């Protein structure tokens, strides 16, 4: 069976993340593992710490059949506190665990797919996993893809969800799901600015953010020169 991983900073998890995870679960008929990224080494976390972000994820998936939290990137950071964490390593770790034949897939938003050429060893990722992509406002997939990305993706698109379970890696599948406008950056901005934000995250997540007084600090803005 296809194993589907949804990586992200989730700082914090919001309703857009959840809608996409549910859509992927329903459309592909497989569980979705939400995989929070570790904090970058030697730097204070920008919003909440990895442990706080993962806790918010636990609260968000508590009553969600087929969604769970996978802390492997946090565990790796504990083992190697000085190393930055890369998706290619996570996939290699998964392959070492599960073997070469198991179909693996990464779920991501269109903005992440457009940014793929900046990822470490990005072309090798297709030899390790499929990609499942959700459209996102402001990140058009149909035209204007950077040439090197368009070239690499061209022969990989499939509209068959079954095809993802029939091969271990290498395909690209686009979810059919309405656009979700939520963004973690916007939620952090709203919290710091005292604007309405609770409707953008699950209720239990909102309560925990408020209880732990997360994201109240305004992100530093450059002062006058
Ligand atoms: P930020 O607003 O700071 O960029 P984010 O909302 O994108 O944060 P991430 O944790 O970076 O949150 O996102 C994890 C993954 O979820 C990424 O692949 C991202 O593209 C995707 N994603 C997040 N929000 C949406 C959305 N509204 N629609 C589609 N994909 C999304």
What do you see in this structure?
- It is a single chain.
- With 225 residues, the protein is α/β, with parallel strands linked by helices.
- It has a single domain, classed as 3-Layer(aba) Sandwich (Rossmann fold).
- Helices cover 37% and strands 13% of the residues.
- The chain contains nine helices and seven strands.
- It has helices at residues 15-28, 50-61, 72-79, 87-98, 110-114, 147-153, 161-166, 184-193, 203-211, and strands at residues 3-8, 32-36, 67-69, 104-109, 130-134, 157-158, 172-174.
- It has a seven-stranded parallel sheet, with helices on both faces.
- Strand 6 (157-158), helix 7 (161-166) and strand 7 form a beta-alpha-beta unit.
- Helix 2 runs antiparallel to helix 9 (203-211).
- The mean pLDDT is 93.
- Adenosine-5'-triphosphate is lined by residues 8-10, 16-17, 20, 108-109, 111-112, 134, 136, 180, 182-185.
CATH C-level category? Alpha Beta
Task: Tell me which CATH architecture applies here.
Answer: 3-Layer(aba) Sandwich
| CATH superfamily descriptor | HUPs
Instruction: Fill in the CATH topology.
Output: Rossmann fold
Shape assignment: globular
What structural class do you assign from the helix and strand content?
alpha/beta
What's the total number of strands? 7
Distance from N terminus to C terminus (CA atoms, Å) equals 56 Å
Order of helices and strands: EHEHEHHEHEHEHEHH
Which hetero compounds are present in the coordinates?
adenosine-5'-triphosphate
Mean pLDDT comes to 93
Radius of gyration: 18 Å
For the largest beta sheet, what order do the strands appear in spatially?
3-2-1-4-5-7-6
Strand content: 5-15%
pLDDT below 50 for ≥5 consecutive residues: which ranges?
none
Helix content: 25-40%
Major sheet characteristics: 7 strands, parallel
């Amino acid at each position: 069976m296809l194993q589907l991983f949804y990586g992200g900073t989730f700082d914090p998890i919001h309703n857009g993340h959840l809608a996409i995870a549910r859509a992927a679960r329903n459309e592909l008929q497989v569980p979705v593992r939400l995989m929070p990224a570790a904090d970058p080494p030697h730097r204070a976390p920008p919003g909440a710490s990895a442990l706080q972000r993962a806790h918010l994820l636990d609260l968000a998936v508590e009553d969600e059949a087929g969604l769970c939290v996978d802390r492997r990137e946090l565990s790796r950071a504990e083992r190697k506190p000085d190393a930055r964490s890369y998706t290619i390593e996570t996939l290699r770790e998964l392959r070492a665990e599960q073997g070469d034949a198991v179909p693996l897939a990464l779920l991501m938003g269109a903005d992440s797919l457009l940014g793929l050429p900046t990822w470490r060893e990005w072309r090798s990722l297709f030899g390790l996993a499929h990609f499942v992509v959700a459209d996102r406002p402001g990140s058009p997939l149909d035209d204007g893809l950077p040439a090197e990305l368009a070239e690499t993706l061209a022969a990989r698109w499939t509209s068959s969800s079954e095809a993802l379970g029939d091969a271990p890696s290498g395909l690209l599948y686009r979810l059919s799901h309405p656009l979700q406008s939520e963004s973690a950056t916007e939620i952090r901005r709203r919290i710091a600015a005292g604007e309405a934000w609770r409707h953008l995250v699950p209720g239990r997540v909102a309560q925990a953010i408020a209880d732990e007084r997360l994201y109240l600090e305004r992100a530093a803005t450059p002062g006058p020169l």
